[in-house]
Structure formats: structure tokens, C-alpha cells
Write a structure and sequence with these properties.
Layout: H1 19-30, H2 43-55, H3 77-88, H4 95-122, H5 140-157, H6 161-164, H7 170-187, H8 193-208, H9 212-228, H10 234-257, H11 271-284, H12 288-298, H13 300-304, H14 310-328, H15 332-337, H16 340-348, H17 356-386, H18 390-399, H19 409-430, H20 442-455, H21 460-467, H22 470-479, E1 487-490, H23 494-502, E2 508-509, E3 519-523, H24 528-533, E4 539-547, E5 550-560, H25 561-564
Length: about 575
């Protein structure tokens, strides 16, 4: 039985979103968070530490080490990209900024690949809206372009994308590789040249970023769905699926040659972890997941049919693989990140089936939520700058003691322009305009961009103070009066060592090099273990430096006693 498509779309509803507006939105989302930001704690500064060491030639490119410690993950591609950029732009940009340029390109490439993936899926015959008796239904190309615009807006609107996509880590290279493979699977067999290149780059990027299992699963799914699709004759489909299969097998072979296959499955121990995971699913992919569920319900007959409608099954496969990785690996949010492009695609196909009341509800909820968020950001910034109102400034002083507010005319101007653009967009959206299928996602995407941009301009000095380790490292560096020798580390994380190496300009070595060093730094949380390895008779504690926003995070600075005599 052939089930009709639930999409009913007139030609008047598929007018394209202006290209300049879409491009400006992507740039406004991608660039803030990379420019002017200090390396933040945990994965961001740790990854940068390996890039910096590679660029300086202090470690091997195939086995990078930071104070004797290898990276957490197996992927080397992000470290290579950052190190190449640092080396190429030496003397032009700071190492931290130079390392981010490839990742800005990766984020923009992810957004572009998602748009093209949605576009070619929407061109499929099963995705087309119902044909009207007297004509006037949306033309295939215009309909596909409007759905692609909506898919890109849904991706930008996803709350979980903001921070993780602006870190210089392997998770962004994995996200880009997934998006490229998704676009290739969607475009085949409509096109062959660039989809083959995109598939090869996506599979290679996933393998070299430490996700060989995901690359094989996603590649096999793409090959199978291209084979079963009905968009092109069998010879063309067969050739496309064979190429995808060969590329997938090549990626698996490369992972085997590089010894990247490893067992990484972890279970959940108690109900609290499951509760945290449920909260992650709710907020991380908001607002895409409710629309995606609506798509699965309204298009359920086509999903269950034997016609293998790729515009539904391909993104569904990518989402299922990402959800499976989220349930079985750590950290869970990083794994769920890879499913956002496909989830945004499913969300886009909900728009042709939404009632006007649901669309209006999305608009009003988004308007209230993001407007309130923007007002809160502005009020807290004004309070910190002027002391009025007093309570927000007092809260900031309590949470970030020692912070001195700084005013930037450029950041203020950008934030003011973004806020004015949001007000103009709200006025346009609430006015009487011709219907457009993507209109329900304009406010969510623009609101998410506004909130991220305001935080990365108005709040950036405060966030740098709280989330970077620069202030703590400055105290450690000031306590070490002799910079000629090495500094042995004990119990410090990769992020702490990377911060000491970059911000403090210290030559930090592994604890095995302790006999060669006159200074040592240790995590105060190690407690008695520090006194055992560094006995007071041989080592004197010079300072205990804490991080301003976390009293429990303290680094001990010790000096060899016989050197002082």
C-alpha cells in the first residue's frame, strides 16, 4: 500500500531565506567563542596543550606526550590541525588564537554540510508535498531549499551545540566528520564527485579523531540506504553504494593499522546517572527533539513502508547510532553531539505538517525565553560595570572573588548591534508576513545565537576569569623564582599541566623526572601521598595557590631543601 505524504505545502510557503541573512547568522554563531577567549579548563586547554607541544617540537607527532602523559583519546587529527596552524601563523597570531582557526572552519563546514544534506534528502520523491488538484504546490527545488534552511536553523537552535562546538577538541572534528558523511549519504546518488570526497573526508576524520566504530556503523548504514533508495536507477545506486562500502572498509582498515580499535563501552551504575542522562536528552537537543518526534509520528507510515524513504531513514539511523553511543560511552554529551545534524534534519521535516497553533506556540515560547535570557545577561553586565542593581554584582563578587570588571567598547558595540537585530527580527516575525515554512525556527536559531553572542562579548572577561586557569597559574609562576630548570608534576591533570606550560612558561616534567628538578608542583587534593613522595625533610612547601572560583582546586609549589642552602 502506498501511503501519501503528510506534507502539504504551497509554493508561497517556500520562499527562500535570504542568503545574506543565513550567512550572517552562521558567522554570528560560529566566530564568538573562538575569538578573544582564553583556553578553558578541562578538555579545551588540555587539547591545546598537546597542540602547543607539537608546534614547539617537544613531542612526537605520532605519539604526543604532555609531561609524559598521552592524550585521553586516541584521535590525533585535532592536535595535528592545531599544531599546523600554530606553526604556520607563528608571529602573526597568538598560539591559542591560531590553534582555533581550523576549528572555526570545521564548525562552518559542519553547518554547510548539514544544509546540503537536508537539501538533497528533501529532493527525494518521498519527501515531496502533496500535489494539489489545480496546481500551486511547492516546486521540488524550492521546497528542498526551504527545508534545508529550516534544518540549518534547527541545528543552530540546539542548545547543546554552543559550547562543545566552540572547543578545540576532537569532538568538533568528529562532529564535522559525521556531518560530511551525512551530506555524502544524502547527496548520493544525485551527485557523485563531491559526495565521494565528502564521504572520504568524513570517514577519515572520524577514524583519526578516535571514533572508528562510529565511522564504520554510519558508513555501512549510508551504503545500505543508498542501495535501497529509489531516487536513481539501480546501476547508479549500485555504484554509489559500492564506493561508500569501499571507503568504509578502508576506514576500518586504517583504524586497524593505527591500532585504534578498543573496547570503550561503559554501563550505568545507579538511578542518578540515568536521571542525569534523561535531563541531558531533554535540554541538550532542545528544541529539535520534540519536532523530531513529531516527524516520526506524522511520517510513520512512510517509515514503516518498504519504499526505503531515505529522507527519514538516513537521519534516523544517524540519530540511533549517536543515541547508542550516548548510552554506552563517556562523556555522554560529547557522543550525543554527533547526532544533532541528523536530529535537526528530522525536525525540519516536521514543519510541513505543523498546525498554525503549534507554530505560534513555538514562536511565543521562544520569544519569551530568549528575550528574558538576553535581558538577564544585560542586567548582570550592567550591575557588574556600574553596581546598579546591587544584588547581581554582589553575587558575582561572591562567586568570583578578586574579579575586576573591564569595559570593552568593541564587545559592547557588537552586543548592542546583536540585541537591536533581535528586536528587529521579533518585530518582523510578529508582523503580518507571507508564510514561510522555515519561519517557526527563525526565532529559536536567532535567540540561541543572541544568547551565545552576548555571553561571549559582555560576559567573556568574567567567564575567562572563572573558567580559565590563568589566574591560578600566574600565582604558581610567581612562586617559582628560578625558571632555568624543570618543574616536576605530581597528581596534576592534563589541563593543569597544559595551563602551567602555556600560561606560566614552565618546563613541566613527569614525576619520574623528579631527581632532575629543583621544583615540584602537586595537587593539594592528593593529601598524604604528596608528603610520602615529597617528604618535608627534602622538600619545602613554598606556596599553595588556589583557583579564585573554586576553593578546593589548589596547587602546591614545593622546592628542594638542599637547593636553598
Amino acid at each position: 500500500m502506498i501511503h501519501p505524504t503528510p506534507a502539504i505545502v504551497a509554493q508561497s510557503a517556500v520562499r527562500p531565506l535570504p542568503r545574506w541573512a543565513l550567512l550572517l547568522l552562521c558567522l554570528a554563531y560560529a566566530i564568538p567563542g573562538f575569538v578573544g577567549r582564553a583556553p578553558w579548563r578541562h578538555a579545551d586547554v588540555a587539547s591545546f596543550g598537546y597542540m602547543h607541544e607539537l608546534a614547539l617540537g617537544r613531542t612526537d607527532w605520532m605519539n604526543p606526550l604532555l609531561a609524559g602523559m598521552p592524550p585521553d583519546g586516541d584521535g590525533l587529527l585535532p592536535y595535528w590541525l592545531g599544531a599546523w596552524a600554530i606553526d604556520a601563523l607563528q608571529g602573526w597570531l597568538s598560539p591559542a588564537m591560531a590553534a582555533r582557526l581550523p576549528f572555526i572552519a570545521l564548525l562552518l563546514l559542519t553547518l554547510s554540510a548539514t544544509w546540503y544534506g537536508v537539501y538533497y534528502l528533501a529532493r527525494g520523491p518521498g519527501a515531496q508535498p502533496v500535489a494539489f488538484a489545480f496546481g500551486g504546490e511547492a516546486k521540488p527545488a524550492d521546497y528542498a531549499r526551504a527545508i534545508a534552511d529550516a534544518g540549518l536553523l534547527a541545528l543552530i537552535a540546539s542548545l547543546g551545540l554552543a559550547q562543545l562546538s566552540h572547543e578545540t577538541t576532537g569532538y568538533l572534528t568528529q562532529l564535522c566528520g559525521t556531518a560530511l558523511l551525512f551530506a555524502a549519504g544524502a547527496a548520493m546518488p544525485w551527485r557523485m564527485a563531491w559526495p565521494v570526497a565528502a564521504a572520504a573526508a568524513g570517514l577519515l576524520g572520524l577514524v583519526l579523531s578516535g571514533a572508528p566504530t562510529l565511522s564504520v556503523l554510519l558508513g555501512l548504514g549510508c551504503a545500505w540506504l543508498v542501495w535501497c533508495g529509489k531516487e536513481a536507477p539501480m546501476p547508479r545506486r549500485g555504484a554509489a553504494s559500492t564506493v561508500l562500502l569501499a571507503l568504509t572498509l578502508g576506514a576500518a582498515l586504517l583504524a586497524w593499522l593505527l591500532d585504534l580499535w578498543a573496547w570503550r563501552i561503559e554501563g550505568f551504575d545507579d538511578g542518578k546517572e540515568w536521571y542525569s542522562l534523561l535531563r541531558l536528552f531533554i535540554w541538550f537537543s532542545w528544541p529539535a527533539w520534540p519536532l523530531a518526534l513529531w516527524t516520526l509520528w506524522r511520517w510513520r507510515h512512510l517509515i514503516a513502508s518498504r519504499q526505503w524513504h531515505r529522507h527519514l531513514l538516513l537521519p534516523l539511523w544517524f540519530v540511533l547510532v549517536a543515541v547508542g553511543a550516548t548510552l554506552t560511552t563517556r562523556p555522554s554529551d560529547r557522543a550525543l553531539l554527533l547526532g544533532l545534524p541528523a536530529l535537526a534534519t528530522l525536525a525540519a521535516f516536521a514543519l510541513p505538517t505543523l498546525r498554525r497553533s503549534i507554530s505560534a506556540l513555538i514562536d511565543w515560547f521562544t520569544l519569551l525565553f530568549f528575550s528574558a535570557s538576553a535581558i538577564a545577561i544585560w542586567v548582570i553586565w550592567l550591575s557588574v560595570q556600574t553596581g546598579v542593581p546591587a544584588k547581581p554584582a554582589a553575587n558575582v563578587a561572591r562567586l568570583a572573588p578578586g574579579y575586576e570588571p573591564a569595559f570593552s567598547a568593541l564587545a559592547f558595540g557588537v552586543a548592542l548591534a546583536a540585541t537591536a537585530a533581535w528586536c528587529a527580527l521579533v518585530a518582523w516575525r510578529t508582523a503580518r508576513n507571507r508564510p514561510a515554512i522555515w519561519k517557526s525556527l527563525v526565532l529559536p536559531a536567532s535567540g540561541a545565537t543572541l544568547g551565545w553572542l552576548l555571553m561571549m562579548t559582555l560576559w567573556l572577561p568574567l567567564l575567562n576569569y572563572g573558567r580559565s586557569m590563568e589566574a591560578q597559574v600566574a600565582g604558581v609562576a610567581a612562586a617559582i623564582t628560578d625558571r632555568q630548570g624543570c618543574v616536576a608534576s605530581y597528581g596534576l591533570s592534563r589541563a593543569q599541566i597544559a595551563a602551567l606550560t602555556y600560561h606560566g612558561q614552565l618546563r613541566v616534567e613527569a614525576v619520574s623526572e623528579l631527581p632532575l628538578c629543583d621544583w615540584a608542583v602537586a595537587d593539594a587534593a592528593m593529601g598524604p601521598a604528596v608528603a610520602t613522595l615529597l617528604p618535608p625533610a627534602e622538600w619545602r612547601t613554598v606556596a599553595s595557590i588556589g583557583r579564585p572560583t573554586d576553593r578546593n582546586d589548589r596547587i602546591l609549589v614545593l622546592r628542594r631543601v638542599d637547593v636553598e642552602r
